[in-house]
Task: inverse folding
Protein backbone atom coordinates (compact mmCIF):
# COMPACT_ATOMS: atom_id res chain seq x y z
CA UNK A 1 0.00 0.00 0.00
CA UNK A 2 1.19 3.52 -0.74
CA UNK A 3 2.24 5.61 2.22
CA UNK A 4 -0.23 8.33 1.23
CA UNK A 5 -3.06 5.77 1.29
CA UNK A 6 -1.92 4.48 4.69
CA UNK A 7 -1.88 8.01 6.11
CA UNK A 8 -5.30 8.73 4.58
CA UNK A 9 -6.71 5.47 5.97
CA UNK A 10 -5.32 6.25 9.42
CA UNK A 11 -6.84 9.72 9.47
CA UNK A 12 -10.19 8.38 8.22
CA UNK A 13 -10.23 5.75 10.95
CA UNK A 14 -9.48 8.33 13.64
CA UNK A 15 -12.12 10.67 12.20
CA UNK A 16 -14.70 7.86 12.23
CA UNK A 17 -13.91 7.09 15.86
CA UNK A 18 -14.24 10.72 16.83
CA UNK A 19 -17.45 10.96 14.79
CA UNK A 20 -18.83 7.96 16.71
CA UNK A 21 -17.86 9.62 20.00
CA UNK A 22 -19.51 12.84 18.92
CA UNK A 23 -22.68 10.98 17.87
CA UNK A 24 -22.87 9.16 21.21
CA UNK A 25 -22.44 12.43 23.08
CA UNK A 26 -25.14 13.95 20.91
CA UNK A 27 -27.52 11.07 21.70
CA UNK A 28 -26.66 11.50 25.36
CA UNK A 29 -27.61 15.17 25.21
CA UNK A 30 -30.89 14.21 23.51
CA UNK A 31 -31.57 11.66 26.24
CA UNK A 32 -30.80 14.23 28.93
CA UNK A 33 -33.10 16.75 27.26
CA UNK A 34 -35.80 14.12 26.97
CA UNK A 35 -35.42 13.22 30.63
CA UNK A 36 -35.48 16.88 31.54
CA UNK A 37 -38.75 17.25 29.67
CA UNK A 38 -40.14 14.18 31.41
CA UNK A 39 -39.12 15.55 34.80
CA UNK A 40 -40.64 18.91 33.93
CA UNK A 41 -43.87 17.22 32.86
CA UNK A 42 -43.83 15.07 36.00
CA UNK A 43 -43.40 18.19 38.11
CA UNK A 44 -46.41 19.73 36.39
CA UNK A 45 -48.46 16.57 36.98
CA UNK A 46 -47.58 16.52 40.67
CA UNK A 47 -48.25 20.22 40.98
CA UNK A 48 -51.63 19.92 39.31
CA UNK A 49 -52.44 16.83 41.37
CA UNK A 50 -51.74 18.78 44.55
CA UNK A 51 -53.86 21.66 43.30
CA UNK A 52 -56.66 19.25 42.50
CA UNK A 53 -56.54 17.78 46.01
CA UNK A 54 -56.45 21.25 47.52
CA UNK A 55 -59.43 22.28 45.39
CA UNK A 56 -61.33 19.18 46.51
CA UNK A 57 -60.74 20.22 50.13
CA UNK A 58 -61.86 23.73 49.24
CA UNK A 59 -64.98 22.33 47.62
CA UNK A 60 -65.73 20.22 50.69
CA UNK A 61 -65.14 23.11 53.10
CA UNK A 62 -67.08 25.51 50.83
CA UNK A 63 -69.96 23.05 50.66
CA UNK A 64 -70.08 22.57 54.43
CA UNK A 65 -69.75 26.30 55.06
CA UNK A 66 -72.62 27.06 52.72
CA UNK A 67 -74.79 24.35 54.20
CA UNK A 68 -74.23 25.67 57.71
CA UNK A 69 -74.36 29.43 57.03
CA UNK A 70 -76.20 29.75 53.74
CA UNK A 71 -73.58 32.35 52.75
CA UNK A 72 -73.00 32.80 48.98
CA UNK A 73 -69.29 33.34 49.64
CA UNK A 74 -68.81 29.64 50.33
CA UNK A 75 -70.60 28.70 47.11
CA UNK A 76 -68.31 30.97 45.14
CA UNK A 77 -65.26 29.24 46.65
CA UNK A 78 -66.87 25.91 45.80
CA UNK A 79 -67.65 26.92 42.21
CA UNK A 80 -64.16 28.35 41.47
CA UNK A 81 -62.50 25.21 42.86
CA UNK A 82 -64.80 22.98 40.78
CA UNK A 83 -64.13 24.97 37.55
CA UNK A 84 -60.38 24.90 38.20
CA UNK A 85 -60.53 21.14 38.81
CA UNK A 86 -62.18 20.60 35.44
CA UNK A 87 -59.26 22.41 33.79
CA UNK A 88 -56.74 20.46 35.88
CA UNK A 89 -58.33 17.15 34.93
CA UNK A 90 -58.20 18.05 31.23
CA UNK A 91 -54.52 19.04 31.53
CA UNK A 92 -53.66 15.89 33.46
CA UNK A 93 -55.41 13.79 30.83
CA UNK A 94 -53.08 15.21 28.19
CA UNK A 95 -49.95 14.93 30.37
CA UNK A 96 -50.46 11.26 31.22
CA UNK A 97 -51.62 10.14 27.82
CA UNK A 98 -48.73 7.62 27.59
CA UNK A 99 -49.30 6.02 31.01
CA UNK A 100 -52.12 3.44 31.18
CA UNK A 101 -51.93 3.05 34.96
CA UNK A 102 -52.05 6.79 35.58
CA UNK A 103 -54.83 7.13 33.07
CA UNK A 104 -56.88 4.47 34.91
CA UNK A 105 -56.24 6.17 38.26
CA UNK A 106 -57.23 9.52 36.80
CA UNK A 107 -60.45 8.04 35.44
CA UNK A 108 -61.22 6.60 38.90
CA UNK A 109 -60.53 10.03 40.44
CA UNK A 110 -62.73 11.72 37.86
CA UNK A 111 -65.50 9.20 38.49
CA UNK A 112 -65.31 9.62 42.30
CA UNK A 113 -65.22 13.40 41.94
CA UNK A 114 -68.30 13.41 39.69
CA UNK A 115 -70.03 10.96 41.99
CA UNK A 116 -69.35 13.19 45.00
CA UNK A 117 -70.58 16.26 43.13
CA UNK A 118 -73.69 14.64 41.71
CA UNK A 119 -74.65 12.54 44.69
CA UNK A 120 -73.76 14.89 47.53
CA UNK A 121 -72.79 18.40 46.61
CA UNK A 122 -75.46 19.35 44.05
CA UNK A 123 -78.51 17.84 45.90
CA UNK A 124 -77.44 19.44 49.20
CA UNK A 125 -76.79 22.85 47.57
CA UNK A 126 -80.17 22.74 45.88
CA UNK A 127 -81.95 21.68 49.13
CA UNK A 128 -80.19 24.43 51.07
CA UNK A 129 -81.32 27.05 48.61
CA UNK A 130 -84.94 25.89 48.94
CA UNK A 131 -84.79 25.55 52.75
CA UNK A 132 -85.59 29.21 53.32
CA UNK A 133 -88.81 28.98 51.33
CA UNK A 134 -90.82 26.98 53.88
CA UNK A 135 -90.59 24.89 56.97
CA UNK A 136 -91.15 21.76 54.96
CA UNK A 137 -88.24 22.65 52.72
CA UNK A 138 -86.06 23.16 55.79
CA UNK A 139 -87.19 19.83 57.14
CA UNK A 140 -86.41 18.22 53.77
CA UNK A 141 -82.94 19.79 53.78
CA UNK A 142 -82.21 18.57 57.31
CA UNK A 143 -83.33 15.13 56.43
CA UNK A 144 -81.19 15.11 53.28
CA UNK A 145 -78.23 16.55 55.19
CA UNK A 146 -78.43 13.76 57.75
CA UNK A 147 -78.79 11.17 55.02
CA UNK A 148 -75.84 12.40 52.97
CA UNK A 149 -73.32 13.62 55.50
CA UNK A 150 -74.06 12.14 58.88
CA UNK A 151 -74.04 8.54 57.66
CA UNK A 152 -70.30 8.83 56.74
CA UNK A 153 -70.61 7.80 53.07
CA UNK A 154 -69.46 11.19 51.89
CA UNK A 155 -66.35 10.89 54.04
CA UNK A 156 -65.64 7.47 52.56
CA UNK A 157 -65.88 8.97 49.08
CA UNK A 158 -63.44 11.73 50.05
CA UNK A 159 -61.07 9.24 51.60
CA UNK A 160 -61.22 7.09 48.47
CA UNK A 161 -60.55 10.18 46.39
CA UNK A 162 -57.58 11.11 48.57
CA UNK A 163 -56.29 7.53 48.36
CA UNK A 164 -56.53 7.56 44.57
CA UNK A 165 -54.63 10.83 44.46
CA UNK A 166 -52.00 9.40 46.76
CA UNK A 167 -51.58 6.39 44.46
CA UNK A 168 -51.50 8.76 41.50
CA UNK A 169 -48.75 10.88 43.10
CA UNK A 170 -46.77 7.88 44.38
CA UNK A 171 -46.81 6.37 40.92
CA UNK A 172 -45.55 9.64 39.46
CA UNK A 173 -42.77 9.81 42.06
CA UNK A 174 -41.82 6.20 41.28
CA UNK A 175 -41.70 7.00 37.56
CA UNK A 176 -39.49 10.01 38.31
CA UNK A 177 -37.07 7.84 40.32
CA UNK A 178 -36.98 5.23 37.57
CA UNK A 179 -36.21 7.94 35.04
CA UNK A 180 -33.45 9.31 37.26
CA UNK A 181 -31.91 5.85 37.71
CA UNK A 182 -32.19 5.08 33.99
CA UNK A 183 -30.68 8.45 33.10
CA UNK A 184 -27.83 7.97 35.56
CA UNK A 185 -27.09 4.53 34.10
CA UNK A 186 -27.27 5.94 30.55
CA UNK A 187 -24.91 8.81 31.42
CA UNK A 188 -22.46 6.40 33.04
CA UNK A 189 -22.64 4.05 30.04
CA UNK A 190 -22.15 6.98 27.71
CA UNK A 191 -19.14 8.16 29.70
CA UNK A 192 -17.65 4.68 29.61
CA UNK A 193 -18.25 4.34 25.87
CA UNK A 194 -16.93 7.84 25.17
CA UNK A 195 -13.83 7.24 27.28
CA UNK A 196 -13.28 3.85 25.64
CA UNK A 197 -13.68 5.32 22.16
CA UNK A 198 -11.40 8.23 22.97
CA UNK A 199 -8.80 5.91 24.48
CA UNK A 200 -9.07 3.58 21.50
CA UNK A 201 -8.85 6.56 19.12
CA UNK A 202 -5.74 7.80 20.93
CA UNK A 203 -4.12 4.37 20.96
CA UNK A 204 -5.09 3.71 17.34
CA UNK A 205 -3.87 7.15 16.27
CA UNK A 206 -0.59 6.72 18.11
CA UNK A 207 -0.19 3.23 16.71
CA UNK A 208 -0.82 4.40 13.16
CA UNK A 209 1.47 7.41 13.62
CA UNK A 210 4.26 5.27 15.14
CA UNK A 211 3.87 2.66 12.39
CA UNK A 212 3.99 5.22 9.59
CA UNK A 213 6.82 7.18 11.24
CA UNK A 214 8.89 4.06 11.93
CA UNK A 215 8.25 2.74 8.43
CA UNK A 216 9.22 6.03 6.80
CA UNK A 217 12.18 6.63 9.13
CA UNK A 218 13.50 3.08 8.68
CA UNK A 219 13.31 3.52 4.91
CA UNK A 220 15.00 6.90 5.09
CA UNK A 221 17.71 5.53 7.42
CA UNK A 222 18.42 2.75 4.94
CA UNK A 223 18.63 5.29 2.14
CA UNK A 224 20.92 7.55 4.19
CA UNK A 225 23.18 4.57 4.97
CA UNK A 226 23.16 3.66 1.31
CA UNK A 227 23.99 7.24 0.31
CA UNK A 228 26.82 7.34 2.88
CA UNK A 229 28.20 4.09 1.49
CA UNK A 230 28.04 5.50 -2.03
CA UNK A 231 29.78 8.68 -0.86
CA UNK A 232 32.58 6.48 0.53
CA UNK A 233 33.02 4.80 -2.83
CA UNK A 234 31.07 1.59 -2.04
CA UNK A 235 28.95 1.45 -5.17
CA UNK A 236 27.91 -2.20 -4.81
CA UNK A 237 25.40 -1.44 -2.03
CA UNK A 238 21.79 -2.56 -2.34
CA UNK A 239 18.63 -2.07 -0.29
CA UNK A 240 15.57 -4.29 -0.33
CA UNK A 241 12.66 -2.42 -1.94
CA UNK A 242 9.92 -4.85 -3.02
CA UNK A 243 6.86 -2.80 -2.02
CA UNK A 244 4.65 -0.56 -4.12
CA UNK A 245 4.86 2.50 -1.88
CA UNK A 246 6.76 5.69 -2.58
CA UNK A 247 9.77 4.75 -0.41
CA UNK A 248 10.14 1.44 -2.21
CA UNK A 249 10.08 3.23 -5.56
CA UNK A 250 12.71 5.65 -4.28
CA UNK A 251 14.76 2.72 -2.97
CA UNK A 252 14.63 1.02 -6.37
CA UNK A 253 15.72 4.29 -7.97
CA UNK A 254 18.67 4.46 -5.55
CA UNK A 255 19.56 0.86 -6.33
CA UNK A 256 19.48 1.66 -10.02
CA UNK A 257 21.55 4.80 -9.42
CA UNK A 258 24.12 2.83 -7.41
CA UNK A 259 24.30 0.23 -10.17
CA UNK A 260 24.81 2.88 -12.85
CA UNK A 261 27.37 4.66 -10.67
CA UNK A 262 29.25 1.40 -10.13
CA UNK A 263 29.31 0.78 -13.87
CA UNK A 264 30.37 4.35 -14.62
CA UNK A 265 33.04 4.35 -11.89
CA UNK A 266 34.40 1.06 -13.20
CA UNK A 267 34.45 2.50 -16.70
CA UNK A 268 36.08 5.70 -15.42
CA UNK A 269 38.76 3.73 -13.57
CA UNK A 270 39.45 1.72 -16.69
CA UNK A 271 39.67 4.90 -18.77
CA UNK A 272 41.97 6.50 -16.20
CA UNK A 273 44.21 3.45 -16.24
CA UNK A 274 44.25 3.59 -20.02
CA UNK A 275 45.02 7.31 -19.84
CA UNK A 276 47.86 6.73 -17.37
CA UNK A 277 49.24 4.03 -19.61
CA UNK A 278 48.81 6.26 -22.65
CA UNK A 279 50.58 9.19 -20.93
CA UNK A 280 53.42 6.93 -19.88
CA UNK A 281 53.76 5.31 -23.29
CA UNK A 282 53.55 8.63 -25.10
CA UNK A 283 56.13 10.26 -22.84
CA UNK A 284 58.42 7.21 -23.06
CA UNK A 285 58.04 6.71 -26.79
CA UNK A 286 58.50 10.42 -27.54
CA UNK A 287 61.57 10.68 -25.36
CA UNK A 288 63.37 7.99 -27.35
CA UNK A 289 63.43 9.88 -30.68
CA UNK A 290 64.20 13.12 -28.83
CA UNK A 291 67.23 11.48 -27.23
CA UNK A 292 68.18 10.12 -30.62
CA UNK A 293 68.07 13.60 -32.14
CA UNK A 294 70.09 14.94 -29.22
CA UNK A 295 72.72 12.20 -29.76
CA UNK A 296 72.93 12.98 -33.48
CA UNK A 297 73.50 16.68 -32.79
CA UNK A 298 76.12 15.81 -30.17
CA UNK A 299 77.92 13.62 -32.70
CA UNK A 300 77.82 16.39 -35.28
CA UNK A 301 79.24 18.86 -32.76
CA UNK A 302 81.96 16.44 -31.71
CA UNK A 303 82.98 15.27 -35.18
CA UNK A 304 82.35 18.30 -37.40
CA UNK A 305 82.47 21.34 -35.15
CA UNK A 306 85.48 22.91 -36.96
CA UNK A 307 83.68 22.56 -40.27
CA UNK A 308 80.50 24.25 -39.07
CA UNK A 309 79.81 27.93 -39.41
CA UNK A 310 78.93 29.92 -36.24
CA UNK A 311 75.33 30.21 -37.42
CA UNK A 312 74.94 26.45 -37.76
CA UNK A 313 76.49 25.94 -34.31
CA UNK A 314 73.92 28.40 -32.92
CA UNK A 315 71.10 26.55 -34.61
CA UNK A 316 72.30 23.25 -33.21
CA UNK A 317 72.27 24.71 -29.66
CA UNK A 318 68.75 25.99 -30.25
CA UNK A 319 67.72 22.50 -31.35
CA UNK A 320 69.24 20.95 -28.22
CA UNK A 321 67.42 23.52 -26.06
CA UNK A 322 64.14 22.68 -27.76
CA UNK A 323 64.79 18.99 -27.15
CA UNK A 324 65.39 19.60 -23.43
CA UNK A 325 62.24 21.71 -23.24
CA UNK A 326 60.25 18.97 -25.01
CA UNK A 327 61.52 16.42 -22.48
CA UNK A 328 60.55 18.75 -19.63
CA UNK A 329 57.09 19.16 -21.14
CA UNK A 330 56.68 15.40 -21.39
CA UNK A 331 57.76 14.99 -17.75
CA UNK A 332 55.31 17.76 -16.78
CA UNK A 333 52.47 16.02 -18.63
CA UNK A 334 53.25 12.78 -16.83
CA UNK A 335 53.39 14.52 -13.43
CA UNK A 336 50.16 16.43 -14.09
CA UNK A 337 48.27 13.28 -15.11
CA UNK A 338 49.34 11.50 -11.93
CA UNK A 339 48.14 14.22 -9.52
CA UNK A 340 45.45 12.83 -7.21
CA UNK A 341 45.59 9.32 -8.65
CA UNK A 342 47.46 7.77 -5.75
CA UNK A 343 46.30 8.33 -2.18
CA UNK A 344 49.12 8.85 0.28
CA UNK A 345 48.90 7.80 3.94
CA UNK A 346 48.78 10.59 6.51
CA UNK A 347 51.90 11.21 8.53
CA UNK A 348 53.31 13.83 10.86
CA UNK A 349 54.74 16.69 8.79
CA UNK A 350 56.73 19.55 10.28
CA UNK A 351 56.20 22.31 7.71
CA UNK A 352 59.43 24.09 8.67
CA UNK A 353 61.47 20.90 8.16
CA UNK A 354 59.61 20.28 4.89
CA UNK A 355 60.63 23.69 3.52
CA UNK A 356 64.23 23.18 4.65
CA UNK A 357 64.19 19.91 2.72
CA UNK A 358 62.93 21.71 -0.40
CA UNK A 359 65.55 24.45 0.03
CA UNK A 360 68.26 21.91 -0.66
CA UNK A 361 67.30 21.43 -4.32
CA UNK A 362 66.00 24.90 -5.28
CA UNK A 363 67.59 26.56 -8.33
CA UNK A 364 70.94 28.11 -7.45
CA UNK A 365 70.64 31.89 -7.51
CA UNK A 366 72.93 34.27 -5.70
CA UNK A 367 71.52 37.13 -3.69
CA UNK A 368 68.20 35.44 -2.79
CA UNK A 369 67.45 34.74 0.88
CA UNK A 370 64.77 32.30 2.11
CA UNK A 371 62.97 33.38 5.31
CA UNK A 372 60.83 30.74 7.00
CA UNK A 373 58.57 31.62 9.94
CA UNK A 374 59.78 30.05 13.18
CA UNK A 375 56.42 28.79 14.49
CA UNK A 376 55.30 26.88 11.39
CA UNK A 377 52.73 24.17 12.33
CA UNK A 378 53.15 20.43 12.54
CA UNK A 379 50.47 18.56 10.62
CA UNK A 380 49.07 15.08 10.36
CA UNK A 381 48.49 14.99 6.62
CA UNK A 382 49.66 13.67 3.24
CA UNK A 383 53.26 14.76 2.86
CA UNK A 384 53.79 14.36 -0.91
CA UNK A 385 50.99 16.70 -2.12
CA UNK A 386 52.04 19.41 0.37
CA UNK A 387 55.65 18.92 -0.72
CA UNK A 388 54.67 19.33 -4.38
CA UNK A 389 52.75 22.53 -3.66
CA UNK A 390 55.55 24.19 -1.69
CA UNK A 391 58.18 22.93 -4.16
CA UNK A 392 56.50 24.38 -7.24
CA UNK A 393 55.76 27.71 -5.56
CA UNK A 394 59.32 28.08 -4.21
CA UNK A 395 60.92 26.95 -7.47
CA UNK A 396 58.85 29.53 -9.37
CA UNK A 397 59.80 32.25 -6.86
CA UNK A 398 63.52 31.44 -7.30
CA UNK A 399 63.44 30.75 -11.03
CA UNK A 400 61.84 34.01 -12.10
CA UNK A 401 63.45 36.28 -9.50
CA UNK A 402 65.13 39.22 -11.22
CA UNK A 403 66.78 41.14 -8.38
CA UNK A 404 70.32 40.63 -7.00
CA UNK A 405 69.22 41.26 -3.42
CA UNK A 406 65.95 39.38 -3.37
CA UNK A 407 64.10 37.41 -0.74
CA UNK A 408 61.45 34.70 -0.49
CA UNK A 409 59.31 34.48 2.67
CA UNK A 410 57.16 31.59 3.90
CA UNK A 411 54.68 32.16 6.75
CA UNK A 412 51.15 31.22 7.76
CA UNK A 413 47.90 32.23 9.48
CA UNK A 414 45.50 30.04 11.47
CA UNK A 415 41.83 30.52 10.50
CA UNK A 416 38.58 28.70 11.30
CA UNK A 417 39.10 25.12 10.16
CA UNK A 418 42.16 25.64 7.97
CA UNK A 419 45.57 27.28 7.59
CA UNK A 420 46.57 29.90 5.07
CA UNK A 421 50.17 29.53 3.89
CA UNK A 422 51.93 32.45 2.23
CA UNK A 423 54.85 32.27 -0.24
CA UNK A 424 56.01 35.85 -0.82
CA UNK A 425 58.82 37.24 -2.98
CA UNK A 426 60.01 40.64 -4.18
CA UNK A 427 60.53 39.50 -7.74
CA UNK A 428 59.19 40.97 -11.00
CA UNK A 429 55.51 40.58 -10.10
CA UNK A 430 52.65 39.55 -12.38
CA UNK A 431 50.03 41.71 -14.05
CA UNK A 432 46.40 41.14 -12.99
CA UNK A 433 45.58 40.11 -16.55
CA UNK A 434 47.61 36.92 -16.01
CA UNK A 435 46.58 35.98 -12.45
CA UNK A 436 44.27 33.21 -13.67
CA UNK A 437 46.18 32.34 -16.82
CA UNK A 438 49.30 31.18 -14.98
CA UNK A 439 47.39 28.28 -13.33
CA UNK A 440 46.47 26.78 -16.73
CA UNK A 441 48.72 23.99 -17.98
CA UNK A 442 51.41 25.00 -20.50
CA UNK A 443 50.76 28.70 -19.81
CA UNK A 444 53.97 30.63 -19.05
CA UNK A 445 54.95 34.27 -19.09
CA UNK A 446 58.53 33.47 -20.13
CA UNK A 447 59.95 32.95 -23.61
CA UNK A 448 59.16 29.40 -24.74
CA UNK A 449 62.77 28.94 -25.76
CA UNK A 450 63.74 29.04 -22.07
CA UNK A 451 63.87 25.37 -21.12
CA UNK A 452 62.75 25.97 -17.57
CA UNK A 453 59.37 27.38 -18.61
CA UNK A 454 57.10 24.38 -19.19
CA UNK A 455 53.97 25.99 -17.74
CA UNK A 456 53.10 22.88 -15.73
CA UNK A 457 54.24 23.66 -12.15
CA UNK A 458 51.45 26.06 -11.11
CA UNK A 459 48.88 23.91 -12.94
CA UNK A 460 49.96 20.97 -10.77
CA UNK A 461 49.57 23.14 -7.65
CA UNK A 462 46.07 24.18 -8.71
CA UNK A 463 45.05 20.60 -9.46
CA UNK A 464 46.34 19.29 -6.10
CA UNK A 465 44.36 21.94 -4.22
CA UNK A 466 41.23 21.60 -6.37
CA UNK A 467 41.16 17.83 -5.77
CA UNK A 468 41.00 18.57 -2.03
CA UNK A 469 38.50 21.42 -2.40
CA UNK A 470 41.14 23.90 -1.25
CA UNK A 471 41.99 27.24 -2.79
CA UNK A 472 44.92 29.30 -4.01
CA UNK A 473 45.04 32.98 -4.89
CA UNK A 474 47.62 35.49 -6.00
CA UNK A 475 48.37 39.05 -4.88
CA UNK A 476 50.80 40.68 -7.29
CA UNK A 477 51.54 43.72 -9.41
CA UNK A 478 54.35 44.27 -11.90
CA UNK A 479 57.54 45.41 -10.14
CA UNK A 480 56.17 44.77 -6.62
CA UNK A 481 56.69 41.06 -6.20
CA UNK A 482 54.12 38.31 -5.68
CA UNK A 483 52.32 36.59 -2.79
CA UNK A 484 50.85 33.13 -3.41
CA UNK A 485 48.29 32.17 -0.71
CA UNK A 486 46.89 28.66 -0.45
CA UNK A 487 44.76 26.85 2.17
CA UNK A 488 45.37 23.52 3.90
CA UNK A 489 43.18 21.62 6.42
CA UNK A 490 43.61 22.47 10.09
CA UNK A 491 44.93 19.17 11.46
CA UNK A 492 47.75 20.36 13.67
CA UNK A 493 49.68 17.95 15.85
CA UNK A 494 50.33 19.51 19.25
Result:
Amino acid sequence: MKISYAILFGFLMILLLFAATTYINYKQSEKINENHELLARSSVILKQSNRFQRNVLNMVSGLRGYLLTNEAFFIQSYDSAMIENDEILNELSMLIADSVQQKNLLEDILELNEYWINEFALPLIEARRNASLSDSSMAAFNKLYRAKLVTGLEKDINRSLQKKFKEFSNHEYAVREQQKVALSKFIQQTKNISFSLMAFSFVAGMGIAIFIASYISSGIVKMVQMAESISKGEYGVYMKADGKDELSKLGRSLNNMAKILAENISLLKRKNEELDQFAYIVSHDLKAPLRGIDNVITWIQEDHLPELSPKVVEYLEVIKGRIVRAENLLNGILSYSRVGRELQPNEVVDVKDLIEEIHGYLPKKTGITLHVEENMPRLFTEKLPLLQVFTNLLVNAYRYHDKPDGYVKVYHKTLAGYYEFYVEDNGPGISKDYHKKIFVIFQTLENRDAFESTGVGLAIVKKILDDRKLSIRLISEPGRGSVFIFTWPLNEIV
